[in-house]
Amino acid sequence: MLPVGSPFLPIFLCVACNDLVASGRDRKPNALVQVAVIDPHKQHLVSHACTEIVEANKDPLFLTGVTFPSEYPASPETLVKLSVYDAKDKTQESVSKHFLLCMCVRRICSSFLGSATFSVGDLLRAKDERLTLSLRSSDGVCTAGTVVVSRLKMGEMEEVDVDQITTDIPSQKVRLGCDVFSAVSDGSVNNFFFFTLFSPSLCLSLAVFKNPVCKVYRFQTMDSKWMLVREQMEECTLSFSIPKQLLALYIQEDMSRVQDLKELGDLSPHWDNLRKEVMTRYAGIISSYQETLAEMDKINGCSFKPSCCKAQKSLEFIPINLHTQRMRVTCPKKTDAFYDIVTVGAPAAHFQGFKGGGLQRLLSRYEAEKKSTAYQCIYYSPEHTAKAQEVLNIMSLLQPLITRLVDQLLQAAHEHSSPGLRDALKHLSDKTEQFVHTLKDELVKSALLALHAAQPGYVSKNQKSTRAQSQHQEPLSLKHQDTIPHHKEYDEEEWDRLWANVAKCLNCVIAMVDKLQEEDNTKQDPVPEHQLADVITSHNPGDWREQLCPLVTRLKDCVMEVVEKAKRAMTFVLLQEAACSIPQGFLLQQRRDIVFSQALAALACGFVMRLYAGMQDKGFLRQLHLVGLVAQFESLLSTYSEEFGMLEDMEVGISDLQRVMFKITEAKSDDLSDLQPLVCGRRDHFTVEVPLPKLVFHTLPEEIKEGKLLRVFPVLFNVGINEQQTIAERFGDISLQERINQKNFETLEAYYKSLSEKVPLECLPCFQTQTDIKELLETLGQNVVAKKKKNVEILWTAGTICRRLNGIRFTSCKSAKDRTSMSVTLEQCALLRDEHQLSKDFFVRALDCMRREGCRIENVQKNIKCRKYAFNMLQLMAFPKCYRPPEGTYGKVDS
After folding, report:
1. pLDDT at residue 596 above 60?
2. What confidence tens digit (pLDDT) does each residue in 227-272 have?
3. Structure pTM?
4. Which of 14, 331, 580, 813 is catalytic?
5. Do 432 and 396 form a contact (C-beta atoms < 8 A)?
6. Residue 800: CB partners within 8 Å, gap ≥ 6?
7. pLDDT tens digits, residue range 392-402?
8. CATH code of the domain made up of 382-459+491-521+539-569
9. b/e code 381-400 from CB counts within 10 Å (16+ = b)
10. Theoretical Cys-Cys bridge with 72: which of 37, 277, 466, 559, CB 3.0 to 4.6 Å?
């Protein structure tokens, strides 16, 4: 199976040298190999890869392999130049893919030993696909030693003899094997030949993932065999598409709320002024979001936001540095294994800053202050306002559904179809009963009374009795009081009668349907001949519709009347909540929108990646629709200074993901543009629809195909590891981190309990390490409560549990660039050690290779145009040792 997102079938090369001669005859060289491709058009070298340094060895075997860049894909005619150097001073070295251009900048003291050139065709035709080439020194004399280059074969695909297989694709002919799938990489292929021949994940990922960066390695196992490891990092189009969709939904929701406020009708001057102020605030948010959306629409072709733009206002809804990373492992006589992770900067409102703290603190403070300012309005608790929004949502769903079911009932009556009549009536009864149950809430009745009291000229019972007394004592004021218009006293029982009428109308419909069907059954009994003519005459298929029509019309009218009143009542509740929110509540809502947008984009990316990878795993699909997936966010933020506020933002943003459901749909076509996930809903509940092509969709379980909503259980674990966390642990406050870890441990434990009740644990993936999940949870629980500084075992154990549970893994720090890179590479090497028997002697070398030349240093380059992790020596002294990068790969830079 090809890796997710791979746009072509690449060729991987490994390199070794023999008998190298150092510039100083009395020492062994610190060898590295720089790889360049000769541009076939411009005939110049394009430097694109470099191995790690092997110290003091004249016969070095390099662990870092060579891949071909997408802009210069391999073909038999491709010319490759290998240049071997002796890096004398390793302490100043940070190898770059532009090594030759950057030597002076990076102060690498190195000397050229020799070079060799070969074509890919020569390599493929060679015995065992292996070439031994003489290294020519700068003076052309072949005395520098030899370089051995061989082709790495990863997985079963490359072992198939497909070098000459071709397939016709509209206006393209794509050759497999050593050639690139060029038609796929440029997005021109709109059919699913590749799905039927290879794997669904290859083609599906082209719609969502792009700009792959690939690195390969070979590491030795404990039994002295070689495993091949491939890292692939990609950007995700959802970085921009999800926030843009969310912004459009936010605008739509706020415009709808403004319209609802207008439809409240006449209000007393006090309430009318509050309404105008609230509408002005909404108008400001709508205008701001429209400007942001317009700015985002101007950006074309970009699919990730670099860390240097994290505080840019026009991009504040975009997640920072969102990438997927997959590690693929090929071991002798074993099935390939894949390990996925999503890396993203902590979801936070960087543009707004953190002087007052983050969302968690701001929201708590706001709720306390709102009660004290509620004198100008009726205070409703967050639970009440949430209930009001829920009632509005349910009504907006059920009212049109009831209308459609009524039409179906009349259609069945018109067709004189008893089965159709029974089926439509059953659904109509269920939905109408649900509708009535929703409206029986006390909040609706009390809100109607409050709305009535807020209208002009309202006089309460108490006011009327006081007024009567005043009339008797001061008759001169009567004339003035009589000029004040007032409503009749509000009848509190009126609302109960209204929703009860809906139930009565439904009962009348049910009774009429029963009567019609009973009469129909009677007419089907044998009839004497002398009565047959009368029966035929009286039987008219239109009778059913005519008899039902007045009743269902009355039902629709009652439902509409109830909806109008309830909608105004709930809108009035939300008006009061908004009035008590000026201006702080609106600012917090904007901040929450921003953080949620970043978090949802990351979650959608992870869900899609996990879904594509598990399409053929029946156990995973069963777990998906029966229970849902756990999404484990690992955070490395400190609980000090600005990062404290970032963590507070992130906590709320991740928690808000509980309001998200996923739904898998059948795509309109196989075009890549029709495979983009779509978001729908409102702030209190969003659904992300993930379209799949017809061939893939019809392989899914029936529950998923029928549109069952799929849950995700987000959990967050945080352990700060930098020097600021040291300050927090000694002089500050780490209670936020402790509370987050404890709370989310309980969520994870509850998820496992639910999963074990509904899904056989045999459906979960198998791992070499046989530690039971229950035992891992006990270990995690112990670590969560342990008073241990920088207890990174919490992160390791939580990550292991997530993988065992088929979950989605995320890793974050401030910008997903430096600390995240250390965590991802450590996790990958730990997986190689624990699951694939990586030799202990190779663990540190593997870790250094990935951190020096792997995808994560490329991520740094993409973000800040510099190949150095943003650490200094003092900072690293505070890091746990396993999170420290190799020498020469770090230096303080602006990030």
Report:
1. yes
2. 999 999 999 999 999 999 999 999 999 999 999 999 988 888 888 9
3. 0.84
4. 813
5. no
6. 771, 776
7. 888 888 888 98
8. 1.20.120
9. eeebbebbbbbbbbbeebbe
10. 37
Confidence of residue 388 (pLDDT cuts 50, 70, 90): confident
Please give the Cα distance from 641 to 357 (Å, whole number).
9
Q: What is the dihedral of CA 745, 749, 751, 755, to 10 degrees?
A: 150
CA distances (Å), origin 622, targets 199, 201, 661: 20, 19, 16
Q: Is 191 exposed, middle or buried (0-12, 13-18, 19+ CB in 10 A)?
A: middle
Q: Is 361 helix (H, G, I), strand (E, B) or coil?
A: helix
Please give the mean pLDDT across all residues of the chain. 82
Instruction: Please name the amino acid found at residue 782.
Output: Q
- The fold adopted by the segment(s) 12-159 is Immunoglobulin-like (2.60.40)
Report helix, strand or coil for 688. strand
Instruction: Read off the tokens for 134.
Output: 């003489």
pLDDT tens, position by position, 629-648: 999 999 999 999 999 999 99
CA distances from 404 to 339, 400, 434, 713 (A): 47, 6, 16, 34
Give the length of the chain.
895
Tokens of 374: 């509620």
**Boundaries of every domain in the chain:** 12-159, 236-376+583-883, 382-459+491-521+539-569
| Strands in 277-356 per DSSP E | 323-330, 337-343
Determine which helix (DSSP H) or strand (DSSP E) holds 842, and give its type and residue range. helix 840-853
Listed in sequence order, the residues at least 6 apart from 734 whose beta carbon sits closer than 8 Å to its beta carbon are 639, 720, 725, 728
**Assigned token pair, 561:** 């009347």
Residue 141: its H or E element = none
Angle between helices 238-262 and 269-297 (to 10 degrees): 160
For the question of residue 17 being annotated catalytic, the response is: no
Please name which of 890, 821, 885, 630 lies closest in space to residue 231, comparing C-alpha atoms.
Answer: 821
Q: Do residues 632 and 809 make contact, with C-beta atoms less than 8 angstroms apart?
A: yes
